[in-house]
Amino acid sequence: MDMGVGFGPFILGMFMPLLGYRNLYFASAILALLIAVIYHFVHGRLFRIQRTRWMIRINQNNGFCITCDF
Question: Fewest beta carbons less than 10 Å away: which of 24, 43, 44, 66?
Fold first, then answer.
């Protein structure tokens, strides 16, 4: 994260003369949405599968999960 805080403004500053403020903000918003979608498919789907397994274990034990690793 520290490198992103340090290099992010530097890299965005290089694109500023080419894009202008309006398009730079728009490109940053598109990039943030793209990263959120990638994160969902890489990590969000895995969490949903794990959560489903935990719920199955809880339901099999009458609402209690002794061996679940939350």
Answer: 66
